[in-house]
Predict the 3D structure of the following.
Amino acid sequence: MTDIPSARPDALAWVNGSDAPEKNSLNLGFMALTDAASLIVAATQGFAQPYGLTLNLHRQHSWSALRDRLIDGELDAAQGLYGLIYGVHLGIGGSAPVDMAVLMGLSQNGQSINLSSSLMEAGVTDAEALRHCVRQSGARLTFAQTFPTGTHALWLYYWLAAHGIHPLEDVRTLVVPPAQMVGHLRSGHIDGFCAGEPWGAQAVAEGSGFTLATSQSIWPDHPEKVLGCTRAFVEQYPNTARALIMAVLAASRFIDQSDENRRSTAQLLAAAEYVGAPLEAIAPRFLGQYADGLGHTWQDAHALRFFGEGEVNMPYHSDGLWFMTQLRRWGLLRQDPDYLAVARSVQQTALYRDAASALGIAVPESLMRTSRLMDGSHWDGSDPAGYARGFALHALSDLPIANLS
């Protein structure tokens, strides 16, 4: 990490003169999820005004609606799923290709895979029991995720495949908006789901389900939500985009600064206009305190975080590359893109460096980071095409790339 000892004394010069935001009032989209916290805090707690911005929050009811409003320009920027932003850019997941941009990371960790109480009563409480159930069941189990190219689909697929369950052949999957997951689980319409919090915690709290795995158990400190917009927005309003990054970075730093700040943020999120869930469902996992509904409790070493001294927020090229490898692995991408060229286009690293440096926030020297996932796979971004082909379970075509349409 590059150590920047203090913020530049002229940090607020970004809002003056030639650096002033070209557009001062922005419409931001978000979902009813606790990892929207930095946008909500930035908009409501005075973090945007010093950078010449007014942030107007617009809660969305589905990721597809958020996507459509972002593309149409009704939203200037939004909390986004990594795979959603890349899916739009690549023209998959239900929309024509539109050049997109990731301004910064908003969060890491904090998602969960949850199963129904009926499966718990049947003794399906671990991966081995689930695999046996899938093999023996006359009817395929049904799992919900939140968007076809989204992170929750990919965490669910990755976890199932790592335990020998093919997510596209051995089980049925469907799309359900995050806030509707618990209701679908309670009614028996689904057997399990992968979504962001507080919905896994809410299923546990009301006894309709239990948490089988967290996303951080798949990949510790994995990239999760991002601040996304169209490339056209960045090109038309570069100063505005930079000021927006600064405001959200400042809010992210505040949230992670102390447990007291986290508690006050959790209370803010519980309001009906934001997440609209009970504080007792939001606060524990927001503070890293997990109870899985099976009698196990723990303080998670890789719980939801928003800043991590800037490690959360850098739009690493390798993060964008990884999500493309999984879109390729599961057949959503029919051929290999120019992985690095796409990541360089989408990830707004120069803009982020300017914003972070102005705030005295450490900026990683490398645009690639190295990780090891739950199945032992090593990820460093050096060979994305080879990585996508390196899994035993996949939905890749056997045809040579040149013959794919």
